[in-house]
Amino acid sequence: MENKTSKYFKYAIGEIVLVVIGILIALSINNWSNNKQLRHTEQAYLLSLQSEFKTNLNKVNTTISDNKKLMNDIEQMLTLFDSNVRDTISDKEISGLIYSVFGNSVTYNPSKGVLTDIISSGNLNLIQNEQLRQQLASFEAMLDNVKFQEIGINSAKGEMISMLNKNGSIRKVLIHRGQNFEHQSISDAVNNKNLFSLTEFENDLLNYYLSIRGANGPKVFGRIKEQIELILVDLESEIKL
């Protein structure tokens, strides 16, 4: 009887051990499958982010280039406050400068669809690289600083537009750009060269110029570009093709 009881307990213990081993194997397989799916999702995110940030790098490079051109136009306009220079340039050339300076804006509109989706869905933790996660999480905060700079720049531009409205002729600029008007206007007698004898207009133009130069430097658009380049390097290292 004692032998039978001993054999029964051994058999029962063996069965329990087999069940536990089976459960552990099943859990291991399930964990492996889940981890594989998570890594597959991570890779899909990384590839999408790589495409998005390559686009953003092209956009910020274009913005920096456009801002440099705008700054060059403003520098040329600033020379018109020297009467010796102003007397050598035609009204049509002045209209061209006014159109170029007033017709362009300092803007940066990055693509954020993929990044926003990852953050809002709580899936940022799927990205294993901690440095990359931190860079992605802080990117939107950097964009808030860009928007703040753009507000300041647009405010300076608004001051210039106000001076143009009070002391110049937008109509004349448009005429020199090829716009035809059926009727004459009182503003036809206005000479836009008169703007460049106003100290207030020069101050507004200089404020606008300095705002753009500051935004185009290492603290705003330069920093954005550097951050994007670092993100792209880390994305490249994490993508397993």
Give an overview in words.
With 241 residues, this protein is mainly α. The protein has 8 helices and no strands. It has helices spanning 2-78, 83-86, 91-102, 113-120, 130-167, 170-176, 199-216, 221-238. The N and C termini lie far apart (65 Å).
Question: What would a concise description of this structure say?
Answer:
The protein has 241 residues and is mostly helical. The protein is built from eight helices and no strands.
Features:
241 residues, mainly alpha, 8 helices, 76% helix, rod-shaped
Number of helices: 8
H/E topology pattern: HHHHHHHH
Beta-strand residue fraction: under 5%
Model regions low in confidence, pLDDT < 50 over at least 5 residues: none
Residues in helices, as a percent range: over 70%
Shape: rod-shaped
Q: Could you describe the largest sheet, including whether it forms a barrel? A: none
How far apart the termini lie comes to: 65 Å
Number of strands: 0
Structural class: mainly alpha
Kindly provide the radius of gyration, computed on alpha-carbon positions and rounded to a whole number of angstroms.
32 Å
**Nearest-integer average pLDDT:** 89
Q: What's the SSE blueprint?
A:
Blueprint: H1 2-78, H2 83-86, H3 91-102, H4 113-120, H5 130-167, H6 170-176, H7 199-216, H8 221-238
Helix pairs in contact: 1-3, 1-4, 1-7, 1-8, 3-6, 5-7, 5-8
